[in-house]
Amino acid sequence: MITGKITLHMVCFSLGFSAATAMADETTPPPSVTLGIAGINAPRYSGADKQHWQLMPVIQARDGAFFLDSQKGIGYDLQADNGLYLEHTLGYGLGRSDQNSSWRDGDDRLRGMGNIDATMNTALALGWSVTPWLVLEGKATLPLSDSQGVQYRTSVTLIPWQTSDDTVALQVAGLFGDGRYMNTWYGVNSKQSARSGFERYDAAGGFYGTDTSLTWSHQFTPAWAASVIGDYSWLDKHASDSPIVARHNGASATLALSYTF
Asked: By CB atoms within 10 Å of each CB, which of 59, 66, 167, 260 scores lowest?
């Protein structure tokens, strides 16, 4: 997701991706726990012209259909023999600060805009593993503890290369938001304009950008694995016309190391 928070949605050992590849291989993974750390260099917020580094823990556990994930939250997935799957999660969004932050999105450039509160959210994803190398998915994320609007994401994941030790995956996603969501992250109301100096801006709902990720995951041993992720985001005019957006595109890089037992 371009907005708001650091995510590891394309880490190949993440639970969502593991579920998709497991369906492609028609196997059910045994109960497992994964611990790790990820270093991320990314824009300070969606539309920022400055980068920052963050260290994020990777904590994942799965037992059958149920899982816990430090990025997604807690949830379950249901999988059909024909490759269709449904995933439901209960998670937590970190919001955004109007000053530089070392643990969530934020930039001094946004002073006067106020903070976007952290919120509980629920996400529902419906996907189809068409072949072992092609996965289609649609996902909606809805806030529960604050009225921040709904974000929608449609994605296509290609897995052109997969061996016992290495996996390469390319994901292209289209991003959409309702009016409340767009104005939470990209809008500038009258009070924010007076405090920050940004011109007032009402963001329209609908399509607002794309996110493209390329991931290489390597299995050193049955327990140790690493992933390298390059990500490119692009904002459409509904977001990029906002005065808080200094750049309509951005890139990030992630290096993650994990141990599974």
From this structure: 66
